[in-house]
Design a protein that fits this description.
about 220 residues; single chain; alpha+beta; three-stranded mixed sheet
């Protein structure tokens, strides 16, 4: 009895796989499904019109102090700047290519090789800036304050860019990018009748197209 049940289960699996294979091969006017890579190509053409996709925005606060000295350190002034800013994590959609995508028939999985999102900005919230300073004499009689302001602005931008590279926030950006790309390509597959399809997004480099045989769109 066990052998019979196993045989029936195996046979049912083969029938389902055969139906999937046949449906993918049949023309759409006969009830077949469009090839997954053809659907991916159409989806890619649509999403690439956006050029770049913002997958995550994050807010940071930078606290920077600059110091100016004159007359060998006899007089000095310093200025502290506290300013919030926003970093956008953007995905460059122009780098996605159908020729590097892979459709695996047994697992019904479309693998997409995507670039990691990159931080852009920051956009500083100047209206929320707070500053503290001392050394009134030097600030009043020289150009020290202008020099301190310029140094602080440059330091704030550099500091926020460093904060944006923190592993924890970078992982969040990766997850957001992966989810966004999965949705962009999975929904058209489901709509085209590939209810069992899955989409896997990886940030690893794609296999060499010069050595890998073309993927069959079964």
């Amino acid at each position: 009895m066990i052998r019979i049940l196993l045989g029936l289960a195996l046979g049912a699996g083969l029938v389902i796989a055969g139906l999937n294979f046949a449906s993918d091969r049949m023309p759409s006017w006969l009830g077949g499904r469009s090839a997954p890579l053809s659907i991916a190509a159409t989806s890619l053409e649509s999403v690439q019109r956006q050029s770049r996709l913002i997958v995550l925005t994050a807010q940071f606060i930078s606290v920077i102090t600059s110091r100016e000295e004159r007359l060998g350190g006899l007089i000095s002034a310093n200025k502290t700047l506290i300013i919030p800013g926003t970093i956008r994590y953007e995905l460059d959609l122009s780098t996605l290519q159908v020729k590097t995508m892979r459709w695996d028939v047994p697992s019904r999985t479309l693998t997409i090789y995507a670039p990691r999102p990159r931080p852009a900005g920051p956009e500083l919230n100047l209206a929320a800036t707070r500053e503290y300073k001392n050394g009134a004499l030097l600030l009043a009689l020289t150009d020290a304050e202008a020099r301190l302001d310029a140094a602080n602005r440059d330091a704030v931008v550099a500091d926020m860019r460093v904060q944006a590279q923190a592993p924890a926030i970078a992982r969040l950006a990766d997850e957001a990018a992966r989810d966004a790309v999965q949705r962009m390509f999975l929904l058209p597959l489901l709509a085209a009748g590939h209810e069992d399809a899955r989409v896997k997004v990886t940030f690893a480099g794609p296999p060499s197209t010069s050595t890998s045989p073309p993927t069959k769109q079964d």
